[in-house]
Structure formats: C-alpha cells, structure tokens
Amino acid sequence: MLKSLDLSITILYILGILVIGLWAGISHRRKSKANAAGEYFLAGKTLKWPAIGLALFATNISTVHLVSLAQSGFDSGLLNGNFEWMAAFTLILLSLFFVPFYIKSGVATLPDFLEKRYDRSSRDWLAIISVVSAIIIHIAFSMLAGGIVLKTLFGLNMYVSVIVICIITAIYTIIGGLKAVVVTESIQTVVLLTGAFIISYAAFHKMGGWGPMTEVLKSKGELDKLSMMRPHGDSSGMPWYTVFLGYPILGIWYWCADQTIVQRVLGAKDENHARIGPLFCGFIKILPVFIFVLPGLLAYTLAQSGHLDVSSLGLDDKGNVNSKGIYTLMITQLLPSGLIGILVAALLSGLMSQVSGALNSISTMVSYDMYQRYRPEASDKQLIRIGKISAGVAMVFSLALLPMLDKYESIFSGINDVIAHIAPPITCVFLLGVFWKGASAQSAKLTLWIGSALGVVVFAINKIFPETLIGHIPFMMMAFYLFCTCVIIQISFSYIYPVQHTEESSQLYWKSPLEPLRGPAWKGLGNYKVLSGLLLLVTGVLYYIFR
C-alpha cells in the first residue's frame, strides 16, 4: 500500500494533468475560431516536430509497456525489445514514403486518404476496423494494465480505479481536443521516461551492475536471455526470422496506417515537421529496451540471487512465477517513499496518454468518416458534438471488454496476437496503394473484406481449437502468412478489375523508388534523409551488439 506522501504526489499529478489539458485545449480553440473542427481534431495543423515525436511516443508507450515489457523481460529476457527497435524501420517508412501523401492530400483521417487513393468502400471499412482496434488495443488493454497496477499498489477494486482515472482523462480529451492531447502527452512522456529511468537505475544498482547480472544468467544457463535474435526452434516462438518477416506487417499497420498513431502527424505544421517528428520518435524508441525490458530481466536475476522477494506474486497454471505484477513489485521493494509516488505518476501517465490519444482519434474518425458522410452539411459544432459522444461510448465499450482481455497470460502477447490478425489486409492495401500504380479500388475493397474475414476465422480457430496446426503457428508468422495471402488477393483482383485512376489518385503513389527523397528538406542534421540514415545506423549497431 502507498504511503500518504506517495498518494499525495499521485493525486496532485492527476489533477495537474487535468488542469493543463483543459487549459491547453480551450485556450488554443479560443485563439483560433476560424475552423473549429480543424482546431479540435487536428490542432489547427500547428504541431512542430518535437511535439509530434513526443506525442507519437507517448501514444505508443502506455502502462501496457511498462508493465508487460517488464514482465516479458522477467520471463524471456530482451527478446520483446524487438518490438521497440524494429519500430525504427517502420517510422522511417512513415517519414519517407507515407507522410508526403498524407500531407499533400490534406486529409484529416487515414480512412479519408484511402478514399482518395481507392474509393469510398475502402474508407468505410477502414474507419470501422480502426475504431474497433482503437477500442480494443489502445484503450481496453491499457485500462487492464493500469488496473493491475492500481490494484497492486492501492488495494482498490481494479475496475473502480480504472474508471476514475479514465473519466478524468476523458474530460480533458473530450473538451480540449487534439491540442490538449498533444500538450499533456508531451508532459506525460517526460514523466514516464523519468520514472522508467529511476526504476532501471534502482534495479541496476541493487544487482550491482551488468557483470553480476550476466554471472547469475550464466550460472542458470540462461545467457540467451540477453539475445534479441533467437535461433530456430526457440521456446519463445519468436526466432529471428519471425521478427524480420512478421514484425513489419504489424509495424506498418501500427505506425503508418493506424489513425490513433498517425493523427499526430496529420496535425503537423508542414511536411518537414511531419517527416522529422516520426524520426525523432524513432530515436526515442531505442530507450525502452534499456528502461522497460531490462528492468524485468534485472528483476529476474535479483529474484534468482535472493535480492527480490517474488513469493507474493504466486504461481501461474504452469507452476512458474506469475510475473504480471513484477513491475509494481519492483517499485514497492526497490524504491523509497516519494520516489514511489513519482513512479505511480509515470504509470498513470502511460495509461492517460494512451487513452486520450485513442479517444481523440475515435472521435475524429466517427465525425469525419461516418457522421459527415450521411450529413455532409453538418456544421463544425455538430461534428465536435458527435465526436465527444462517440468518445464517451468508446470508453464504455472498452470497460466492458476488460474481463475477457484479462484472460491473457501476458498483456503484451495479447495485444500483438490481436494486431497480428487485424493488420495484414490493411498493411497490404496501404503498401500496394502507395508503391504500385496498378492497385485498383475494387481489389482494395475485396482485400479488406476477405482479409479481415480470414483474420477473424483464423483467430477464432486458434482460440477454440488451439491444438490444430493453426494453433501452433506463432502469431508473428501468422501475420506474415495472412499478409502474403492478402497480397495475392489484391494483385489478382487488380488484374481482374483494372485500376481506373482519378486525377487525385494518380498523384498518390510513387512513380519511382527515389521520388520520396526529392521532397523539400531542411539543411544539415535536420535533413530527414540524414536523420533516416543515422537512425538506421544506430539501430543496426545495436542489433549487432545484442544479436
């Protein structure tokens, strides 16, 4: 249980974020009333690269990451750090190949972009899938992780505590719009990173450094926990080739085609800010392996050497330590009072930033992609009102999903399992749409329909009949197989139903591989080409070290 000092810090932080969020959103909209809907949903397209990069990171990193990446570090070592470092490659793709079209087309949502490149049917389907995925992946799973933390630290009912935090988050998000989301996310990123550094240092110091940690792993015959690239047949189900084949399918959807993430880019001041923001986020994404995953591995070696008491966590069905609560256990056993309050604030930052970003994206898609279609004459005031209502409804649905999602042994694995079955058709139509002139509207629509249906069927078989052949395929490889199937479907239908470009769609695919690099760029280190190369180099060196 938290002491009064820690509880006070936590409460003051939550109230502070609420006040700042309301102030940022309301004051911004008062200054610029010319386009009320644009101000509310896209912050009037005034965002600069530091805010975009920090907001991208904050929307991505939630309490799920702090809790579940530490859990994965405890269970399997640095392996799941691949989801962090591989993100660098997809953020480069976003910066170089997707951003120019998103900015050039002036869209407010990614379903809107899909209509401009293909047709209305593709837009409708993506809007529905994006809203559903935002509710499940970005909100419900984040609530679950936050609930586990709050239950462990406060001893409160998980659902009651999560509802209170999410209502507070919903208030400033629904009232303040994207500007409130981005301002609060920037603050929350700093708080979250500070908290993560504190717990990482505490665990590292308690262990006595890198050497003692490796000695413990060596004595247990588990030095492979330091490896990011595992061999074929590894018990984790994630050998090196599944990472390189499967992750891009998940990553391109998540970073390049998911409204909740990309909305920060759509609010950019100009194309260069929109390009540099994701690259800045890519550099920040190097940190989670060391401040989110590594603490979990340190907790494992501390437990093995008798410096961390994990008996209170109990055992899972397989007789292993139930590691879901390892992060909160580290907080309470390794930190003094005062610092615990800061860590709780960091955990709540992750929950609040994830939920606020998802709610804002849901309200944007429902207003622009659904309501405005049937009410094209709708005023800005009506669009904003519908957006606020949809955000509230999404919150209720997310809360209802918590009992079902709590059945996953690992929250992080649960999220990626869901994404692996949602992402393939969306990744396919975006990639082929941007890189292939021949991708037709009819083929995109059929690929989204058939690919999504396949994903649901495979997911259901996997859960109902886990002993079948499908049940034994790792989710990363399943994503790759589904993606390849979708590519075959779209290419085949593109020849059956040849493309008929409009004047607008003919400007939304690359004519040559080098064309994306010819756009306007800042000079020096701020050049997006220079930064892309530097990010590739740094990530490559890290993979070589931890191969």
Short characterization:
Keywords: Membrane, Transmembrane, Transmembrane helix. This protein is mainly α and 547 residues long. The protein has a single domain (4-545), classed as Up-down Bundle (Sodium/glucose cotransporter).
Description of the structure:
This protein has helices spanning 4-31, 36-42, 49-60, 63-76, 82-85, 87-105, 110-117, 120-154, 158-207, 210-219, 240-256, 259-266, 271-284, 288-304, 326-334, 339-374, 380-405, 411-435, 441-464, 475-496, 528-545. The longest helix is centred in the middle third of the chain and has 50 residues, at 158-207. The protein is built from 21 helices and no strands. It has a single domain, classed as Sodium/glucose cotransporter (Up-down Bundle). It is a multi-pass membrane protein.
Name some characteristics of this structure.
0% strand; mainly alpha; D-glucose:sodium symporter activity; Sodium/glucose cotransporter; Sodium:solute symporter
